[in-house]
Amino acid sequence: MDRIEISKAGSFKGKFSPTPDKSISHRAVIFSSLSKGKSIIRNLLIAEDVISTINAFRALGVDISEVRSQRSEIPDLPTPNSELIINGKGLYGLKEPFDVIDCGNSGTTMRLLSGVLSGNSFFSVLTGDESLRKRPMGRVITPLRQMGADIVARGEDKYPPIAIKGKKLKPIKYTLPVASAQVKSAILLAGLYADGDTEIIEPVKSRDHTERMIPAFGAETKIDGLCVRIRGGIELKGTEVYIPGDFSSAAFFIIGALLIKNSDITIEGVGINPTRTGLINTLKEMGADIEIYNIKNLSGEPVADIRCKGGVELKAINVTKEQVPALIDEFPILCVAATQATGTTTIRGAEELRVKESDRIKSMATELRKMGAEIEEFEDGLSITGKGRLKGTVVESYKDHRIAMAMSIAALIGEGTTTIDGISSVNISFPGFFDISKRLTA
Ligand code: S3P
């Protein structure tokens, strides 16, 4: 049965490393596949979303093999979970896929691949599961068409499946209507195929993993505030990349430790890229006890250990539109923290959450209310009044990995026992989530 029963916990204690970063893993597979020569990706996330990207590039003719647990030549790295060796084909070495490419649940796979395929002169079709087929794709289709790609999609070019006939692309200057790293990255990837400089201007800075990774593969980007520029026509060369732990996965346990009294956990090797760690600033503002130390730089990304203790009184805060991109994926678990903060926490300017793997505003409002939380829903966010006792009941995940994990942390602080339906969705980003949770719980 696709469900779990979780009872109230007394404490969260111990040390662990979270699974490798999902966003960075996708990008490492993409750039390695588009490079000439061999790349080694150490500590790659082997979870459903990244497997969708790996399978897509295999379908496009790239030779990808998995090797387990070899020591890195980079000194002082922990033994990685998993390694991938990719013999890249170069920008123009992909072959026309024989079938439709299934991106599963992964918006990152579909949007970033759209950028790549726009510059490849063959025919390809991208589809996904029921959730992905409802997610907006016009946001990538519009700029990629402006660059010259021939793209059509279902529902008047709004939703997957997407059919692409790549063309010789021209550079564009494009202002993103929404802060989206997926759209920015799709245009940057297409920009590799254009003659000249492609320029993207963001309304608020979104995660910058693509920009950070590109130089390691030999291409150029220039960053000037909210403007990113990429030079096209440069051949990529294979390299070695190390993937840090996923801050978004660590976030569930950071908040678990804060909310469960007598907790004290250490999370090792977590990516702390500032475009991802808005939650840390928000939690500190709420009064949380979080220590970040042992900071180092691995493959262009800052990485650290995080120690977090429970038992601190949290106070409510306001999260504004400008703060949302740096904590976009942490919204579900932040909602759980807000139920335990004194006062009313308000999160606004977060309408993007309505078009994630589920409508995350509605999913969290509905499920936390079932446990007794006081929540008001707005079109662009919600407000949660703490600090009320959560009570165990039956809740569901909407097949959304982050809702399943957030609700399982709510279950650890709820009175009695909570049943969570639809837990296999955690395999999208965090296989082993429930094992770690069990190990930390007393
Ligand atoms: C991602 C970007 C974000 C994020 C998603 C992963 C990425 O989506 O929510 O989980 O890897 O670029 P948007 O670009 O749609 O904001």
Helix and strand topology:
Elements: E1 3-7, E2 13-16, H1 22-33, E3 36-42, H2 48-59, E4 63-67, E5 83-89, E6 101-102, H3 107-118, E7 123-127, H4 138-146, E8 150-153, H5 154-157, E9 159-165, E10 173-175, H6 181-191, E11 197-201, H7 209-213, E12 221-224, E13 227-231, E14 240-242, H8 247-259, E15 264-271, H9 278-286, E16 289-298, E17 301-309, E18 314-315, E19 318-319, H10 331-339, E20 341-347, H11 360-370, E21 374-378, E22 381-386, E23 394-396, H12 401-413, E24 417-421, H13 433-440
Parallel strand pairs: 2-15, 3-14, 6-7, 10-11, 18-20, 19-20, 23-24
Antiparallel strand pairs: 1-24, 3-5, 4-5, 7-9, 8-9, 11-13, 12-13, 15-17, 16-17, 20-22, 21-22
The chain binds shikimate-3-phosphate (S3P).
Report the C-alpha radius of gyration, rounded: 21 Å
- Helices, by number, come to 13
Overall pLDDT metric: 95
Low-pLDDT stretches = 70-80
Strand pairing plus helix content: what structural class?
A: alpha/beta
